[in-house]
Design brief:
Blueprint: H1 3-9, H2 13-22, E1 31-35, E2 42-49, E3 52-59, H3 67-81, E4 91-95, H4 98-101, E5 105-108, H5 128-146, H6 166-178, H7 194-203, E6 212-214, E7 223-225, E8 232-235, E9 242-244, H8 247-256, H9 280-291, H10 298-321, H11 327-347
Antiparallel strand pairs: 1-2, 2-3, 3-5, 4-5, 6-9, 7-8
Helix pairs in contact: 5-9, 6-10, 7-10, 8-10, 10-11
Length: 349
């Protein structure tokens, strides 16, 4: 049995069909379950029942301890976005009860779109002007999200606003220090400029922010583009969403955005073809234009994102040193962490 078949087999389709009937959503057997592309921690399955199409999302088995809570959180976010102009998959229903399928799950409407991480289709692949518009469409998504009032959307309790920015650097510095428990990890000395970047972040922290909803992992592979235009079809993977400083999402996009030459290898995300996409600086200018936000400290948020993502990636390297993760993957992630910190160091010069 292939990995995809095993993942599909973990979903009890009979129990799911009974639940769909009880909710008045569809009647009959579940048909045509197809595993959609996604991470190893979550199952994303397109299926039919009673003549209706659904996409189911749930944590994959025991992939992580709080998987069900994450699904409940995602469903809450999608429910709050209903009626807004934020591109997203419309929530159909959510099940908070772990007993039905061995974990909380939710159902959403299928979205017709493509992920650039799976390849660039036509006409996008052959038109640099189309790709340029795709870059700015990512800012349209952030602008739409920024317009949603978290209080009016019923999400005011989702985040912890007190000390939100103040705790960022210390949180990730502590994460880095925790890797010392992995035998064989060479330590933070293998990460150039990590201490200097951390100090700069603490010394140049913004004075305050206007709270908003942030996605938490906003980059070009966490959206679906429309097949017939450069516009977004949906923003996906809301598992890290919270209420905090929405500029965090812009910084994350900056950190993960590919540079224009070999002298800037910072981004761990590779997309081809890349010609035509705007620069990170152009994205920041577009964000200011479309949101009216003050972006004078956008660099700080980009540096923070490089710092955070770099230290997260280093965790896989540390585990690989102790034989707890694939060594080739760990080395690749370490190289990405080094590149991100070098990008951050260039930005603070």
């Amino acid at each position: 049995m292939s990995d995809a078949q095993e993942r599909l087999a973990s979903i009890d389709l009979v129990r799911l069909s009974h639940w769909l009937r009880a909710q008045g959503l569809a009647d009959g057997a579940v048909q045509g379950p197809t595993l959609l592309a996604g991470g190893t921690q979550n199952l994303i399955v397109r299926l039919r029942c009673g003549g209706r199409e659904f996409v189911l999302r749930k944590a994959a088995g025991t992939a992580y301890a709080n998987g069900s809570e994450t699904m409940r959180r995602e469903a809450r976010i999608l429910a709050a976005l209903a009626g807004t102009d934020v591109p997203h998959a419309r929530l159909i229903a959510a099940c908070k009860d772990d007993a039905v399928l061995g974990g909380a799950f939710y159902l959403m409407e299928p979205v017709e779109g493509f992920n650039v991480g799976m390849g660039m289709p036509e006409p996008h692949a052959s038109q640099p002007a189309m790709r340029r518009a795709m870059g700015f469409a990512l800012i349209d998504g952030l602008a739409a999200l920024r317009r949603v009032d978290p209080v009016a959307a019923g999400l005011s309790d989702l985040g912890h606003l007190d000390g939100f920015l103040e705790r960022q650097v210390s949180r990730w510095r502590t994460q880095l220090e925790s890797y010392a428990r992995y035998e064989g990890w060479p330590g933070a000395n293998g990460l150039p400029q990590v201490e200097a970047v951390g100090r700069w972040l603490e010394q140049h922290m913004p004075k305050g922010f206007t709270p908003g909803i942030l996605h938490g992992d906003y980059h070009i592979k966490n959206v679906l583009f429309r097949p017939d235009s450069p516009a977004l079809a949906a923003i996906v993977d809301w598992e890290l969403s919270t209420v905090g400083d929405p500029m965090i999402d812009l910084g994350w996009l900056m950190a993960t955005w590919r540079g224009q030459g070999a002298d800037d290898p910072g981004s761990p995300i590779e997309i081809e073809p890349w010609s035509g996409f705007p620069t990170a600086a152009e994205l920041v200018d577009c964000y200011a234009e479309r949101t009216g936000a003050d972006v004078s400290q956008a660099r700080w948020y980009g540096v923070l994102a490089c710092y955070k993502l770099g230290l997260l990636l280093e965790g896989t390297f540390a585990r690989s040193c102790a034989g707890k993760a694939d060594q080739a993957l760990g080395q690749r992630f370490h190289n990405n962490a080094v590149n991100l910190l070098q990008r951050a160091a260039r930005w603070i010069e």
